[in-house]
Amino acid sequence: MSVTRLKWLEVKNFRNYSQLFWECPEGVNVIYGENGAGKSNLLESIFYLAWGRSFRGSTDQQMLRWDSDFFQIRGHFLTFLGDTEISISYCPPRKLFRLNGLPGHLQDFTGLVPVIVFSPQDIALVKGPPEGRRAFLDHLLAAQDSLYCQNLKEYRRILKQRNILLKRIKQGKGGLRELEPWDVKLREKGTALMEKREKGLKALCQLLEPIYSQMEPGKKPSLAYLPNVEADNWEGAMKKARMQELKWGYTLLGPHRDDFSFKIDNKEARFFASQGQQRSMALALKLATLSLWKDHLRRQPLLLLDDVFSELDRRRQEALARLIPPCQTFITSAERETLPPRLLAGASLWNLREGRLRPICP
Fold first, then answer.
1. Does residue 8 contact residue 347 with C-beta atoms inside 8 Å?
2. In terms of CB atoms within 10 Å, which of 86, 139, 268, 321 comes out highest?
3. Which residues 6+ apart lie within 8 Å of 167 measured at CB?
4. Helix (H, G, I), strand (E, B) or coil at 135
């Protein structure tokens, strides 16, 4: 098992930070601070180094500190390659990547530092629109499977070109026969994606079940893949949808419109589960993702929990504290009282105030 660890983090002109340098201990790190102190921003900077994007959906421009013309984030990690330094600088409109001091690209280190993050907004994975679930699944599978990543990029390129052609035909600037080769390519790449998604969800569900059962005793969870079109009937479905596609000018069938659902005791969680059960499901999904990294890639991810415990009742807090694996974990909280004592035992405690981190004696 390859252990992943963040040894130090340096942030300049990122969000509310003018400059911060933090040597990060192993194990559990708990960061306290008032609302608006920058706790979530700190976790965001760690995630940004791993994936080159925000887990909150923010643009690079939005993460630039007020009145600054650049931001830079640097981190020194222990990865399966050994000591690794990653640096990302944003100087509008350019974004520069460095790996061990050498210029590179995002794809050079995507997946090198596996990071799993959970924030209160992640309950939308259970009860929100399909776009969020598709993005989650694509991100998970692409990070673990380079072929899936390539097929996904190619599928999106084909989809874009096919939509352009549909609009041209609608305007009388093209013929239906021009669609045929794009139909074949779309089905070929789309079928490959669908097969991987179905297999990936099955593996994820096997890991999710025991985790959720510890948070919600007596309840049986499941994940159901909901493909937009059946692979063995795609060609016929395309012919039936042709006139409607020409009317609207975009592709109606394919994995770009897939979804998957969460069920508890065979009932749709987004309709029948309580808020607490839905939050437990989203948490179990993220912890199952962490286990998937460990089991399939033999790498121990970092775990980021952004103000999670304040959203849970005491029973679920205790259950989550028991489920946190022995990995480097970063937890934010406005108040120490919201965290279970068993979680604080042996943890490194930090107070975040005015852009500075100060250690707290237990």
1. no
2. 86
3. 249, 250
4. helix
| Separation CA 287–CA 284 (nearest Å) | 5
| Tokens at 229, concatenated | 């079109």
One digit per residue, pLDDT tens: the chain, 362 residues? Answer: 788 999 999 999 999 999 999 999 999 999 999 999 999 999 999 999 999 999 998 999 999 999 999 999 999 999 988 999 999 999 999 999 999 999 998 878 877 899 999 998 999 999 999 999 999 999 999 888 889 999 999 999 999 999 999 999 989 888 888 999 999 999 999 999 999 999 999 999 999 999 999 999 999 999 999 999 998 999 999 999 999 999 999 999 999 999 999 999 999 999 999 999 999 999 999 999 999 888 877 888 999 999 999 889 999 999 999 999 989 999 999 988 789 999 998 899 999 999 999 998 76
> pTM of the predicted model, to two decimals?
0.92
- Bridge-based pairing state of the strands 17-23 and 5-14: antiparallel
At residue 332, the 3 state secondary structure works out as strand
Question: Number of H helices and number of E strands within the chain?
Answer: 11, 17
User: Contact 71/16 with Cβ under 8 angstroms?
Assistant: no
Cα–Cα distance, 325 to 290 (Å, whole number): 9
